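Many introductory courses stop at the sequence. We go one step further.
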Amino acid sequence: RLIEAEGAGITGGEPTLVMERVCRYIRILKENFGREFDIHLYTNSVGIDLNGLKRLDSAGLDEIRFHTWKEEDWEKIRLAVDFNFRVGAEMPAIPGRAYERKLIKLARFLDSIGAYFLNLNELEFSDGNRLELLSRGYHVRSNSGVAVSGSKEAARRVLSYIERETGILGYFCSADVKELQVLNRWRRRAKNVAKPYQCVTDQGTLLFGVIRGDSNQLLEVKGILEEQGYPLEFNEDELLVPADLVLEMQAILASRGLTADIVEIAPLDLNFEISRNPVVKRRG
């Protein structure tokens, strides 16, 4: 609700290894958000069998996305097409002729069994795969901080084949689009969780001022601001106020021996702090 989502993805780990829990959450989501709330599940196929697919179908799953390079596991995709959910695969577009050939072979297989789509994701560097990708000779695309060079071009060639030679749908999700998706989620969530004294930035973060110091001085400032109708929050040893108010009150706060920072946080449950900039420092 806080990000105004119209659907949800279930991933892992491997969600099919905890099938009972997954089905329970699918039912809970459908009960709370309605039948139109679209739920898709990612799997590497390890926990997939007919019984599990029946349970997912009964729970109300809308779409299943397989992620596996092993051709012996593709037969599990064939099992899934007989159920009510959409069936397809989602794979990274890894540069290299062998990987492109494998993706084209997968596309042909999906088409032959009546599957619906093949999603291709731009390959990205991460903390977990960085050394491995570098050891294989991959490097970052020049105009990106994370995307692997050549991945987008590989995806285009595979998608061209899909459009020309198959009846399935082909999609490509670039690293830039993923960043935009996260940004938009943050913006929606920030709008819904922002407290009256917090400002939502263009990046979907929350900005506000934090005043600290002697409790008596804080209480006096609190009283003055409340009389003037400013939104604020008082937490024992700190006063939380709009960021622009801290800038306007620098001299007053300094004269009272108080300190003040402008703080930027992510709009998440743990209030992850992104930056803290001192505006009024402690004297002496």
